[in-house]
Amino acid sequence: MRIAIDAMGGDHAPNAHVESVLSAAAEWPDTQLILVGDPDVLRPLLGDNAPGNISIEAASEVIENEDEPVRAVRRKTNSSMVVAGRMVKEGLADAMISSGNTGALMATGLLVVGRLTGIERPALAAMFPTLDNKGLLALDMGANMDAKPEHLLQYALMGSLYRSKVHGISKPRVGLLNVGTEAAKGNELTKITYGLLENAPIHFVGNIEARDVLEGVCDVMICDGFSGNILLKAIEGAASSIFKLLREELTSSLMSKVAAAAMKPNFRRIRDRMDYNEYNGAPLLGINGLVVKGHGSSDAKAMKTAIRQTRTAISNRLIASLADEFSGK
Q: HAMAP family under this entry (predicted)?
């Protein structure tokens, strides 16, 4: 399998990306890893003894976070993100990963790679950690700020298939994010969507509230991109604030420091369970090729997780399964 990595996109590019690729290449020698970016920057980072399953695809431009997404994709045709997308489109890579501008990656998926037949709106799917350690796939996390009930129905079908194919869950539980668990709760979008999901060929478990997302009440959570992105950032912010408060309290006195030293292994396990790096790699479902979004602040560990997730999706023929599902085969 061949995976193209946008080596210039993200807060810690290209160093973290090269580090992750070196580690991944050693662990998975059957995978061809293609760093897309400036060769003069990437070659020194790779060194003289890089594994043979790493290569470089030249790209002279970079799409920055402040760039307007559609305009950047259309004008910066030799950017690392667009070149990686073109490789997927032309069959030169089985998938691409980018930690760059989310809007630009969405535009790359739509304008360069192309949409799957039968899909109206692609969705960004992200994994949340849960207390039962199974994780929750949530979509849409920000690809589309506005959505129709029919779009959410497609998200549910794609998310259910993803968890089945990639994570091996035979009957994924699908929940609809809402302000209450009762069927009659919510706005017009969620009320109409509820009826569609009830009659869909999925295991729909009803409405779920934001406070229950990390409790493991479902395997797939559906929402519009506006609500999903707010939820994602709220959870990230809350987790960061809680750990910051814990650090302050546990270093506030000598007694606290002694107690913290004794509890250090427990705190480390909690941190690891809630670490987004362990869940990095959000596929843009609905695109006619595997396009994966890494967190903007992804370090080498997070990027390697995204590579692992992408390998699994390729091995389980995720895109072919989605194409069959929505083409009526």
A: PlsX
Give pTM, 2 decimals: 0.86
- Residue appearing with tokens 């695809």: 57
pLDDT digits (tens, 9 = 90+) for 219-253: 999 999 999 989 988 888 887 888 788 888 888 88
The angle, 0 to 180 degrees and rounded to 10, between the axes of the packed helices 149-167 and 188-198 is 50
Domain ranges of the chain: 1-119+286-329, 120-278
Backbone angles phi, psi at 136, to 5 degrees: -135, 130
CA distance readout (Å), 99 to 8, 34, 192: 9, 15, 34
Amino acid at 248: E
| 5 touches 36 (CB < 8 A) | yes
Q: Which of 153, 152, 126, 155 has the alpha carbon at shortest distance from 231?
A: 126
CA 142 to chain centre: 11
Please list, in sequence order, all residues whose beta carbon lies within 8 angstroms of the beta carbon of residue 232, skipping any fewer than 6 positions away.
126, 128, 138, 141, 142
57, 87 contact by CB (below 8 A): yes
The dihedrals phi and psi of 137, each to the nearest 5 degrees, come to -90, 120
Q: Assign domain 120-278 one CATH number from 3.30.420.40, 3.40.718.10, 3.30.300.210, 3.40.50.1700.
A: 3.40.718.10
pLDDT in tens, 36-85: 999 999 999 998 888 999 999 999 999 999 999 999 999 999 999 999 99
Q: Which CATH architecture has domain 1-119+286-329?
A: 3-Layer(aba) Sandwich (3.40)
Element (H, E) at 126: strand 126-128
Give the total residue count for the chain.
Answer: 329
CA distance 249 to 245: 6
Nearest one of 143, 144, 63 to 101, comparing CA atoms: 63
**Tokens at 282, concatenated:** 């959000």
Same fold, 1-119+286-329 and 120-278: yes
Nearest-CA neighbor of 276 among 308, 298, 309?
Answer: 298
